Amino acid sequence: MTKFVPKPGDIVQIEKNGEVWSGRALPSKGSRLNLKLNSGYNVGIDIDKGTKIEKLGEAESIRHRPVKFALKHDRKKPRVSVLSAGGTIASSIDYSTGAISASYSADDLMSSVPEVSEFANIDAERIFEEMSENLTPKDWQIIARAIFKKVQDKNISGIVVTHGTDTLSFSTAMMSFMLRNLNKPVVFTYSQKSSDRGSTDAAMNLICSTITAAKDIAEVVTVGHGTVNDDYCLINRGNKVRKMHSSQRNTFRPINCHPIGKVWPDGKVEIISEYKKSGEVLEKPYLADKLEERIAIVKFYPGLNPEIIDWYIDKGYKGLIIEGTGLGHVNVDKMSLVPAIKKAIEKGILVCMTTQTIYGSVNPYVYSNLRRLSEKGVLYLRDMLTDTAYVKLMWSLGQAKSLGEAKEMMLENIAGEFNPRLQPDMFLY
Amino acid sequence: MTKFVPKPGDIVQIEKNGEVWSGRALPSKGSRLNLKLNSGYNVGIDIDKGTKIEKLGEAESIRHRPVKFALKHDRKKPRVSVLSAGGTIASSIDYSTGAISASYSADDLMSSVPEVSEFANIDAERIFEEMSENLTPKDWQIIARAIFKKVQDKNISGIVVTHGTDTLSFSTAMMSFMLRNLNKPVVFTYSQKSSDRGSTDAAMNLICSTITAAKDIAEVVTVGHGTVNDDYCLINRGNKVRKMHSSQRNTFRPINCHPIGKVWPDGKVEIISEYKKSGEVLEKPYLADKLEERIAIVKFYPGLNPEIIDWYIDKGYKGLIIEGTGLGHVNVDKMSLVPAIKKAIEKGILVCMTTQTIYGSVNPYVYSNLRRLSEKGVLYLRDMLTDTAYVKLMWSLGQAKSLGEAKEMMLENIAGEFNPRLQPDMFLY
Question: Which of residues 186-225 of A touch B (CB under 8 A)?
Fold first, then answer.
């Protein structure tokens, strides 16, 4: 029993009913003490007479800004523009709930990682502060316009965008279509832990992203941890990458391809796959940001109510991505989706098929059921990821002058979203 | 130019405009010749005057039954019951479309793999013939009842069920809940290529399944290729496994756990993880097959129309699995799902959260947005797979006497569907 009342920021140890917690006190109400554990998670502990509170360290500002360094400028080094679009990488502790929310400016972020100035001169700017689960198609247009300004600036060698992990691959896939004739690297990076905590992965990801942004890659890519250790980052094509783990730092994996390369924080880069080089792009870059937003993903599963497709028809939707099973199946029997799909196609809705296995291709030529769907006019999008297919369908229907042209665009390999040469070791890379 | 017209079954080589195809002729219409290539895929070639057709082999029945062996019976060996529930493993070429559809009886199938009799005496029976994408929740009840009959038969050591790959993990997860106090192995197996073709994976999968079904594993498991080679099969827990590749034979992977073990076709078994042993089950097995079918999966993505949740409310649905991003996020801002989710919960709908990253856990204690959802009453299903969560919610609401009881069942580790000890190397196993 103790009368010591911890101030927010105090490092304390709590003992109650034989259990022991230690961590940093968060703002708390009444007799409930909120504690940020050393693991990064928070607990709320009801303080009663039997609770023992021991102070291990003084209160200091938790919501600290990182130590700021004036980044050195060096005329010989390439200029890299860093744009912040929110996410954990730019987040700190939210006192209202004790959890993490978006904060920090791009400038704060970069000046907390002075190592980047070894590789480039940095211009940091904020697009917006938002956790990526809250982004909408309109935000993709805002991000694309901000990037495109920097694409047009001839003094800038490459662009780094910080972004939340949750919907990052939707954004990168969309950028790969919106930024036409892209002639410099657009590198999206992220963090799986907030950057004001000890074991953050943000620093290495930012350093490796800056290194990549100074190279000759004329593509939209992601750069982040390749393993759970701080050894190297993977460079992945923005429309062939997916968040595959909810918490591990090596979460972004190449899907149906190898990574473009690996990059080490000391500046070393190893190229693994072919990519578009800056020097190969001779035509002028332009921004194609018009979208058709009435697009939906329908994930198929046993027991799915086929009326859901009728609902999208009635709501005036223009395109549907059916995420089928295996090679692109849906029920064609007792709970058949075929009548609803047929109706959608007759109404001029563009219906495409991807697979929920994540890895591998859809293929309508192996099983009878699929052949029938394909004959009805469903487009089979080979090895394209569902999320990439979704943004590409928004983009194609926004750009095309006719349904026929949109269909052709969907099947054309516009930004490396199809890989015609799948290999067994691309599975679970 | 040639006047030779291939009969279905003839092995032919076709040359046209410099391209060469060789394979087996399929029934064809008019001037279009359908050809099953040696790769297993089919093409349709328009035969014109410039097309050269060469016959390489005689017509024979393609839809051949495999050579039947009378399986030897040996009183000293365990008795294994093989039940066929369709799928590629029991399929042959469908002449109407030239593609693959369900056929073959379990008896045909087993007698084409005489090696199984080295390990067990086989009883083969058919449940039904169906490609697994056409299965509905009612079919799960039919499969469970057929299995349960064999569970009650004390002379039977284990059960092998052949099933299509596409929705196999839905079925195995459901069986893991329906078959209570299971005291013998229930092994689901499959094939990624039809079993009447040379390079089929069916034989090895059937042999390894039979070996597994004669062991002491009192769980529902899948057994199938661990690699793209014919070296060993993985034994995976039926509710922690997922089809992760649309065509590779090593498609079924353990998710958020290690496999239970490996099994080689020579009879060797290596155990990797803990499992429930037959001798540990002392209570009488029973069948709990009542389901609430008004359950849906809502996959969240940027731009998802929140009205879809209202539609499910209006349709009288009783449970929703929200497949969120990352740690279990949905939009809480401009296209917020929160009001609709709140309304669903107020109407007594059980709303649960899983992650679309596949690997890792959801966790409402890290980010402010999730904490708010959790406070509204959304159940966070930790590391449970979306597909497992979907069938478990059907089952829990079918079994429970109250909503409160169903919630408790959802969070209880009933058949190993939660793994409290996630390790980094379980990612992309």
Answer: none
